């Protein structure tokens, strides 16, 4: 079972059109910052950006050891990429501001790419049975954390900077027990990134469902995914998709919400349709009433 898709081809692994080795997708000369960049989807995006030639790559996370391991792997395979490590928590506004400022100073220039990947899945319990602080942590990371990240990034960003928010297709799904914090916080974050785009004309902002990726966070809902017949996707898929999304080929998707599983060549063929329908591939209510 897979999510509904506007493209006939639904990818669960990476493929040639989104390969970071394509010259058209090169990020050489760019400075990129990734929150939650030490493991899982964030590490995959970091690996793919390095393969596409990104010059300076900052990865931020709460734990130093995974960051160091990812840095070692990336620089061994991609000597042209300089990896900058920052241990910290985006829920700390001052630390986040200082971290992005330190990266901008280290590279001696503006930040071209922001990947807002850090997220949190609260324990799967009902609203009345959950621990209140545990439930609210989803909002602390996805909403407050990304709020801090965007505020720290904006003054240091290139005028034509690109922002990718790693969201989730779960916000579209009907009720599943225990997901109130995760889905509500992701919906709030998605709307916040829409506002950031409107407030910063000239920047490219895209929200991406990364696919169903087996990460430590995903272990919490793996049994539910199995019950629904969902199959996990390869972790390389979101990384390579994001590289494509940052290229000129995807500029027409500015302000949209897309899935890494969708076939990009089929999506490109929809460009004319999308230009006539600003509401398609965005989050909203089904009508006004």
From TrEMBL:
GO terms for molecular function: oxidoreductase activity. Residues 1-16 have a biased composition (Polar residues). InterPro entries: KR_dom (IPR057326), NAD(P)-bd_dom_sf (IPR036291), SDR_fam (IPR002347). The keyword Oxidoreductase applies. Pfam families: adh_short. The keyword Oxidoreductase applies. Keywords: Oxidoreductase. SMART domains: PKS_KR. Residues 30-199 form the Ketoreductase domain. Residues 1-23 are annotated as: Disordered. Belongs to the short-chain dehydrogenases/reductases (SDR) family. PANTHER family: ALCOHOL DEHYDROGENASE. This is Short chain dehydrogenase reductase. It comes from Colletotrichum plurivorum.
